[in-house]
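Researcher: We're teaching a course module on how sequence relates to structure. For the next exercise, students receive a sequence and then see the predicted structure as tokens, so they can try to spot secondary structure elements on their own. Here is the exercise chain.
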Amino acid sequence: MKIKVLLLLSVFFISVSSIANNNDVWGPTGHRATGKIAEKHLTKSAKKKIEKLLQGESLAFVSTYADEIKSDRKTYGKFYTWHYVNMPLDTKYEDSKKNPKGDLITGINECVKILKDKNSSTADKRFYLKMLVHLVGDMHQPMHIGQSEDKGGNTIQVQWHGKGSNLHRVWDENLIEKWGMSYVELADNAKHLSKEQIKAIQKGSVIDWMYDTHKLTKQVYGSVKSGDKLRYRYSYDYFPIVREQLQKGGLRLAKLLNEIFC
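Model: And here is the predicted structure for the students to work with:
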């Protein structure tokens, strides 16, 4: 009997841990797709310098690093709030209440600052490059710029094809996983864009890009209500938007990296 109880408790705690660690991320597939797309738009100089700094690892490979270190809260806890921005739907970032521990915008800016600093150590540059790749991806997941009261959609419970989920997880992983494409397939099948279209996407600052995603955040919040049963119709309506966001993230990441490693 004791063994049976211990087994049940183990399953319970593993399940809770899985849910707790699945709150604040594009899924691995989404992040890797963004990294892969970015690599296709790097200049030769930037690509060479990045390959050297990452010791041969690809942007796709390091794109999940910032999530992998989350479990070590003692060492990396100060970076936890860098993965998101909480702000009301009708408020500008500049006027919103800021997290004293930092947020997605301050995190990206800090990464860029350290990478541009000639006095930064190689180890620091490698670490903050990995962080930057991930954070730019996060910025293009609309629920990473969500409301604090529902934890970016995490408390909005829905059903996804008959199974329990929440609005944040639907956009992090469910939409991508249901389509069954690898990160390479997602990257290779990104929409063909003209040079002018690419420049238009890359135009502006990090704040401008955040606002671009925040427009979508408002749309996503209006797309469901707690308890909704989401199935194929939701996938058909919103998976194309997910693909577009992955591509925007990759193109904008490439722009930042080309400027840093010029």
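Model: If you want an answer key for the exercise: Residues 1-24 have pLDDT under 50 and may be disordered. Residues 16 and 168 are 16 Å apart (CA to CA).
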